[in-house]
Amino acid sequence: MDAKRRSRPAGRIVTAAAAAVLFGCSGSGSEPSPRPTPAPPVSAAGQQGLSYFTGLPARSAPVLAVKIDNVLPARPHTGLAEADIVYVEQVEAGQSRLLAIYSSRLPEKVGPVRSARESDIELLGQFGRAALAYSGSHSALSPLIHAAPLVALAQGDAPQAYVRDRTRLAPHNLYLDPERALAAAPQATTAGDIGFRFGAAPAGGTPVSEHTVRFPAARFTFTWSGTERRWLVGMDGVAARTTDGGRLGASTVVVQYVDIHPSRFSDRGGSVSPYTESVGAGSALVLRDGRSHDARWSRPTAASGTSFTTTTGQPLAFAPGQVWVVLAAR
């Protein structure tokens, strides 16, 4: 693994947290900073040396997905600031978990790591053969994960990549060394075009200073900072920070409305795991530069990427930087 891909400690690079599932609401407050003159979207895929996932300079590197705990005892997170993309998914009892995608940068440690869900298989299909790091899964789900077009890296598959933090309570204390994880997954494919486009903001949009999305048992608020040029993240009414004290924030937040229904699996307490459909088409809300934009998303097959367009059908460019995608119920 190229040691030069190590980045600064988590929290010093912009990120964000997000969330949700039942409904979202937004409101306006302080006037957002001036927007750039609209220009045709720029495709990261067509720009040599730019990341397909963030639109920022990056070298070609393997894709590592990490399933991250997101209940209160799991916070603050570690290594989340270095992720290129963070997906937010609904799990049992109305809670949420995060699926962080790494390629451009690798932190020294990521976590806490928790178990995978059936929805992760479909969601990761657009990344080629990504490496998936997770603590474990339902016994009946494990064969499906190992048969899927990804590299399964449960704790038992790559024990040398995991460590327990004895200062935190189990099960919220399992952490991953990303470089060791990728060393155990030489067949993981490099980052490719997953449909994201980056460039100047589209014309129009609605000025918004804050947007909240809710799960049945969680609340996520994104507050625009004109000074930092990003959406600062709050979880359950508290500012979200990393273990080194850095505030989480995202350049672009996407609320992608999808179908969510019960899966075939349940947790140890008998709660049925929800299944999030990420293949299909529907509406979305894209937050960037202090404005919200109504959008449409489309992903024809599990092997194809997800494209986002304006309501008139034009590609909708994201702001370069970390992207959060909240998979919320229609």
The fraction of residues assigned to DSSP E strands is 25-35%
Q: Averaged pLDDT, please?
A: 87
Please count the helical segments. Answer: 3
Report low-confidence residues grouped into runs of 5 or more: 8-40
Category from helices, strands and their pairing:
mainly beta
Can you count the beta strands?
21
Share of helical residues: under 10%
Strand-and-helix sequence, N→C? Answer: EEEEHEHEEEHEEEEEEEEEEEEE
Q: Label the overall shape.
A: globular
Which value, in Å, is the CA radius of gyration? 18 Å
Q: Could you describe the largest sheet, including whether it forms a barrel? A: 11 strands, mixed
Distance between the termini: 41 Å
Structural features, described:
It is a single chain. The chain is mainly beta. It is globular. 6% of the residues lie in helices and 34% in strands. The longest helix is centred in the middle third of the chain and has 7 residues. About 10% of the residues have low confidence. The chain starts with 22 loop residues before the first strand and ends with a strand. Strands 2, 3, 4, 5, 6, 9, 15, 18, 19, 20 and 21 form an eleven-stranded mixed beta sheet that branches. Strands 1, 10, 11, 12, 13 and 14 form a six-stranded antiparallel beta sheet that branches. Strands 7-8 form a two-stranded antiparallel ribbon. The chain is built from three helices and 21 strands.
